[in-house]
Amino acid sequence: MIEDIRIEIKKSLAKAVHEAFQLSKSPDEIPVDIQTKPEFGEFSSNLCIQLLKAAGKKQEEIALEIILRFEKPEFVDSVEAMEAGGVYYLNFFLDFPAFGDKVLREVLSSKDDYGKSDFHKGQKLLLEHSSINPTGPINVGRVRNSLIGDTMAGLARAVGWDVETHFYVDDMGKQVATIAWGIENKISEKYSLTFDERGEPVLEETDGPAENELLSRYEKYADKPDFKVFFTYVPTTKLIEDENLDSEIDELAERCEEGEEESIGRLKKVVEDVLAGQKQTLERLGITFDSFDFESRFVLDGSAQKAIEDLKALPQSLELDTGANAIDLSEFGLERRGGGTVFQRPNGTSVYIVRDVAYHRWKLGQADANLIVLGEDHKVEYKELKTILKLLGDLKDDNLLDVVHFAFVGMKGRRMSTRKGVIVSVDELLDEGIDRAEKEVRSRNEELDDEKVAEIAKQVAIGAIKYHMLKVQTMKQLTFSWEDALDFEGDAAPYVQYAHARASSILRKGGVFEDTSIPENIVFTNESERDLTRLISHFPSIIFTAAAERRPHLLPDYAYKLATQFTEFYHKSPVLGAEEPEVKESRIAMVKATRQTLRNCLSLLGIESPDRM
RNA sequence: GGGCCCAUAGCCUAGCCAGGAUAUGGCGUUUGGCUUCGGACCAAAAGAUCGAGGGUUCGAAUCCCUCUGGGCCCGCCA
């Protein structure tokens, strides 16, 4: 609706410009912005200064000529030229009763679909995200990937894509072989694990019962399979490092690589354990996947081998002095020290990129377009992969494979590292958050039973955590802090949820919570009503931009603005106490529309909207 | 050594890609506000040489160059 009006304004302006100055401009070239400041109207354009040279006239003359010829599209009430800082803006004001009426009607009739469009209808998007290493529980660093991925999935669906989510499981590498070896050799029973003052793991061989500092720290999660593996992974990596046991691990990894099913089975068992634990955590966050793609599959079905052969056939392919096979991508600005990106070791085994190529060839065949969420540490790898896929002829169009990168989540002072046992697990964060939220909810709602309190506490805590990690631009580095992650005040999910709960509360009190009727006539009597409705009207544009430009943080940003605007409305415009029945009906419609829009926005973020909290 | 990303008040952050209206909010600080639809709230105040320097432009937080600080990458790990 808002975009429709914008397009109409652009068309009309293009026409006016043509008539006035004989300049041909396509509507796309006409700048028209959605205004966030109501005093400048609903839309504005700096077209006059843009035309300065081409028209050869002063801005005020240009403005006059355009306004004179501008044919007002539906809902546009007036155009005004306003000068500021030497620029003449064209500001477009809408016929508010008509526009607002239409907006509210649209929200109330579209309900959960408000904001969505069918732009990509009939197209399938394969979205790979998370793909967390199977070395232990999900930490707050890795989970940024999942949260961005899940939100992008929602956004993609909201603009019409048929989305399929995938999780790539690394069940082949050295890391996994290390764990399998460690478990089979009962490392965590033979060695005590402690950490020195620098946080480095220290091992000590023992005959008696082994101590494990990680186990005592995470006693609560001792039975969770991903933690169990973590307890073994840390001492085993350390042992291998100390004792130079690489060859034993390499041998195991090599046998997997050769497709030996028994070895692959040994690794896969470990991986499935970790994955089961990770899935539990993801499910607590409400994140699920349509498919888990095991790396080993691409070895077993021969597609990795096929990829090696195809790579060797490329003109950029070469054999290095060491006997390894590599591909030289320097002509694409992707230089490697050794002279190329190695894809096959001298012993004939393949490097991860081969399986990545095989995997992506498969993925490209599954959907109309592909999107991946990857940490910034994989930027080069992604570029190489994409370049290779183009060289191989598997990627015909750049747009068919796209990526969202994100910066790392750090901890004050040191980097998170599973290998060193330095993590903040998502489970502990959730548990701590729910604990805090429960106290808060209980103190505010004495009448609620324990079960209801627990449910709301969960929604609040999970909301706060997700919102906190999603409200910042993906490329901005985050420093994790318990206080910030679990802050329930200010620009945080609970504030938005609270506005929603208040809206619900008004509807309950007014006895219209279940009522879906829309009043015959909607009236606007003050600015707070218009500002609120105007902001509601922006939601579809927000979704569209966030989805197209892969900027999920626009959603928390918008949710907070809308919640704030609702609070202002709440204080200035009594709903149930409104004297005129028409005003009361209209305001109820605004409350319903706000509640619906807040819900829809939070829902895209994977955040629930409790009706009381 | 080379490449990519980030830098906005004491702290966190929007705006940057498509340059233009007094730079967006939050936390914290100070002051005030619950007999009126829920105080996880509201109103107000103070707080910014938009990392530094140069350039392009009528106009730069936004584009270009140089530099500084931080992160990431430059594995025959994945």
Rg, Cα atoms, Å = 29 Å
Low-pLDDT parts are: none
Q: Which whole number gives the mean pLDDT?
A: 93
Major sheet characteristics: 5 strands, parallel
What is the helix content? Answer: 40-55%
- Spatial order of the strands forming the largest sheet: 9-6-5-13-14
Number of helices: 23
| β-strand number | 16
What structural class do you assign from the helix and strand content? alpha/beta
* Strand residue content: 5-15%
Give the termini distance in whole angstroms: 33 Å
The best one-word shape is globular
Spell out the key features of this protein.
23 helices, single chain, globular, 613 residues, four-stranded antiparallel sheet, five-stranded parallel sheet, alpha/beta, RNA-binding, 51% helix
What does this structure look like?
The structure is a single chain. By secondary structure, the chain is an alpha/beta fold. Helices cover 51% and strands 13% of the residues. It has helices at 2-21, 47-50, 52-56, 59-69, 96-110, 143-158, 174-184, 187-190, 213-217, 225-243, 246-257, 261-284, 296-300, 303-312, 352-364, 379-391, 426-444, 450-470, 482-485, 493-509, 527-548, 554-572, 581-604, and strands spanning 33-34, 43-45, 76-84, 87-94, 124-128, 162-169, 191-195, 201-205, 291-294, 317-319, 325-327, 341-344, 369-375, 401-406, 409-411, 478-480. The chain has a five-stranded parallel β-sheet, with helices on both faces. Strands 1-2-4-3 form a four-stranded antiparallel β-sheet. A three-stranded antiparallel β-sheet has the order 10-11-12. Helix 16 (379-391) links the parallel strand 13 and strand 14 (401-406). The longest helix has 24 residues, at 261-284. The chain starts with a helix and ends in a 9-residue tail after the last helix. The mean pLDDT is 93. The protein binds one RNA strand of 78 nucleotides through strand 3, helix 7, strand 12, helix 15 and helix 16.
